[in-house]
Amino acid sequence: MKRAPDLMQTVAPASPERGPRQFQTDRKFASNNRQNGTDAENKAVVQGALAYYGTYEVDESNKSLIMRIEYSSFPNFNGAEQRRNVKLENDELTVVNSAAASGGTSSLIWKRVK
Hints:
The chain is mainly beta. The protein has one helix at about 40-45, and strands at about 10, 20-25, 50-60, 65-70, 80-90, 90-95, 105-110. It is elongated.
């Protein structure tokens, strides 16, 4: 199956001590060496990836997750506490970040694997 160039691959957390990681799946370095990327290649990788870990808490009364980020590939998130609104419907969990690091709102939809 061929993936769309702007597709993000997300790895969901398996426990409260982990965090999601998002990567654009179409990035390649011409040199085939991550230490020798061009300015444009390095910029594309940084802008196309986000990873963080820490703990989270479910706030059922407000239908949200509280993310306590220990470390992130975006250092401004280190030590931050962030709230995400959530909606669970059938086999889909939608997580909404209304203050995304790139501006605006971002949504993540996780589908249950059967």
